[in-house]
């Protein structure tokens, strides 16, 4: 019955949906997430509607800080974690994105594909590279300690790379994988979590959604760099590997880029 219903979604999406390429991490995937090697399906029609807050069947936060969508598409052959990227030049430029070149795009991550209801996806709109503190400080040579020995776990950030289908730590200085994320405003000024101080501007925070990452779970203290050069540190992380899957992070800015 589910396969019939999803096939019907796919038929309807042929008329009202936008074409999207679908990318899937395979056991042979290395490098960036969105690349020809990881292309699973091309120009599949998908329509999306914002998921209403308070949906009782929705297995995540009811406040919907992440922008969730219910999909109208044939997802019978798709898996949680598959990434959709719009390929429609008409709907992209001048309609739902700006009419000039941008680092943002229209994307989705399949977060829930329940057999009894419409598939749920999270919004994706840009790319970022992730870095984590080194867990092993530089070793000393003989009895002479290496310069900055005790703080070497901070500047020697390890890049998160994609290698053979899994995300893993790389050595400091290696190029990190480009990972699709959703990047959204987040304000919590005045709450217990972030008490305001007189005459001091509150820290600038953002909320990000990251697709499930096989092999690596980001942690508080990790940094990510958006394609425009902005740098953020994760201060609160939450993830789900079941139900509505994915990672949700509260981050604060440490370096400003071109537009974020």
Provide a descriptive summary of the structure in words.
- This protein is mostly beta strands.
- The protein has two domains: 2-126, no CATH class; 127-255, Thrombin, subunit H (Beta Barrel), CATH 2.40.10.
- 7% of the residues lie in helices and 37% in strands.
- The chain contains two helices and 14 strands.
- The protein has helices spanning 2-16, 89-92; strands at 18-23, 39-50, 68-72, 83-86, 107-112, 120-124, 126-132, 158-163, 166-172, 179-185, 205-210, 223-226, 231-240, 246-255.
- A six-stranded antiparallel beta barrel has the order 1-2-3-6-5-4. The chain has a six-stranded antiparallel β-barrel with strand order 7-10-11-14-13-12.
- A hairpin with a 7-residue loop joins strand 5 and strand 6 (120-124).
- The N and C termini lie far apart (45 Å).
- 31% of the residues are buried.
- Residues 149-154 and 189-196 have low confidence and may be disordered.
The share of residues in helices is under 10%
What is the terminal-to-terminal distance? 45 Å
How much of the sequence lies in strands comes to 35-45%
CATH class value of the largest domain: Mainly Beta
Poorly predicted residue ranges: 149-154, 189-196
Instruction: Specify the overall morphology.
Output: globular
Question: What name is given to the CATH topology of the largest domain?
Answer: Thrombin, subunit H
Compute the number of strand runs: 14
Number of domains: 2
Mean pLDDT over all positions: 77
Topology:
Blueprint: H1 2-16, E1 18-23, E2 39-50, E3 68-72, E4 83-86, H2 89-92, E5 107-112, E6 120-124, E7 126-132, E8 158-163, E9 166-172, E10 179-185, E11 205-210, E12 223-226, E13 231-240, E14 246-255
Antiparallel strand pairs: 1-2, 1-4, 2-3, 3-6, 4-5, 5-6, 7-8, 7-10, 7-12, 8-9, 10-11, 11-14, 12-13, 13-14
């Amino acid at each position: 019955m589910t396969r019939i219903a999803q096939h019907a979604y796919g038929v309807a999406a042929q008329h009202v949906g936008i074409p999207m390429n679908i990318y899937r991490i395979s056991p042979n995937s290395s490098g960036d997430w969105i690349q020809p090697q990881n292309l699973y399906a091309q120009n599949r029609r998908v329509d999306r509607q914002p998921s209403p807050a308070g949906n009782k069947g929705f297995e995540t936060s009811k406040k919907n800080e992440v922008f969730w969508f219910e999909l109208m598409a044939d997802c019978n052959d798709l898996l949680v974690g598959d990434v959709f990227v719009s390929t429609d030049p008409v709907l992209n430029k001048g309609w739902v994105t700006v009419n000039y070149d941008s680092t943002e795009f229209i994307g989705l991550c399949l977060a829930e594909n329940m057999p009894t209801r419409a598939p749920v996806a999270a919004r994706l709109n840009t790319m970022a590279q992730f870095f984590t503190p080194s867990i092993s400080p530089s070793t000393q040579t003989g009895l002479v300690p290496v310069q900055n020995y005790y703080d070497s776990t901070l500047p020697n950030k390890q890049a998160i790379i994609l290698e053979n289908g899994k995300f893993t730590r790389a050595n400091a200085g290696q190029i990190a994988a480009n990972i699709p994320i959703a990047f959204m405003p987040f304000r919590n000024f005045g709450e217990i979590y972030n008490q305001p101080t007189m005459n001091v501007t509150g820290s600038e925070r953002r909320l990000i959604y990251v697709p499930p990452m096989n092999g690596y779970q980001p942690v508080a203290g990790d940094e990510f760099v958006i394609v425009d050069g902005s740098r953020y540190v994760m201060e609160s992380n939450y993830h789900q590997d079941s139900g509505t899957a994915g990672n949700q992070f509260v981050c604060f800015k440490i370096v400003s880029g071109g537009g974020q």
